[in-house]
Amino acid sequence: MNPTPPRWCVLIPCLNEEAAIRDVVESVLALNVPVIVVDDGSDDRTPQIVDALPVTLLRHPQRRGKGEALRHGFREALRQGFDAVVTMDGDGQHLAGDVPRIVAAAQRYPGHIVIGARLLDREQQPKGRRRANAVADWGISWGCGVPVADTQSGQRWYPRAALELVDLPAENFVFEAAILIAACREKGLGVVSVPIASRYHGEFRLSHFSPVRDVVRITAYTIGRIASYGDIVASYRRSHEAPPTVIDDDGLLAVEAGEPARLIR
Question: Do the strands 84-87 and 112-120 form a parallel or antiparallel pair, or are they unpaired?
Fold first, then answer.
């Protein structure tokens, strides 16, 4: 007997996304899945635009950071009885068209977080962001004890075991790193990725992520977690001796010489 497929929704945290949020939400609704939007204290028309759409809208009266927006959304998803959540940013950098591949990977790999890894069109990514992400990937993979591709991508499948980590004491962009690390080290979850495109064209508003400030915060948190778990050398070896697992059933990613990714077709 085949197990019942998990009941899932899409969660979109957003802040001042009036230029893109309607198209983002409507593209997800076209997939015929429930949507939860968390508005983190926008002072533009974002909440009014979302409120006119058939979604669950949660609002913060003032900005609390991305971590608290995700935390609020996770709690609502659990309250509504969902088994998993796909997260997407509200600025249009993540496409609803990538969601089915992420969900398919999750069905193939139960007990895993699935990351939409920005491995395609990398030239679109600013060099500073690319360097910052590489540092974060190196450190957070060590914290997880497993290799992870694109630890900074906000398009992810979180199964219920990860959602239950909602009360982790981490804020802002550190929360996403904290979830990855605790899910691997405390819940025994794995991490796999599917390739998506890097999208940094001029139509996107400036990122809320600071390559200096937020990488410093994430690095400090990760070092603390690595030290707290112990087994430092062994966890480093587990996370860096093998490449991340990247699922590319559609052949979207042509691996370049030396590319640290293992494709499963």
Answer: unpaired
Tens digit of each residue's pLDDT (9 = 90 or more) over 15-43: 999 999 999 999 999 999 999 999 999 99
| Measured distance CA(24)–CA(50) in Å, rounded | 10
Whole-prediction pTM:
0.90
What is the residue-averaged pLDDT of the chain?
Answer: 89
CA distance 12 to 85: 10
In three-state secondary structure terms, 99 is: helix
Give the strand order in the sheet containing 112-120.
56-59, 35-39, 8-14, 84-87, 156-159, 112-120, 190-197, 245-247, 262-264
Query: pLDDT tens, 82-95?
Result: 999 999 999 999 99
Residue where the block lists tokens 């230029």: 19
Distance (Å, rounded) from C-alpha 28 to C-alpha 116? 15
- The domains of the chain, with CATH numbers, are 8-253 (3.90.550.10)
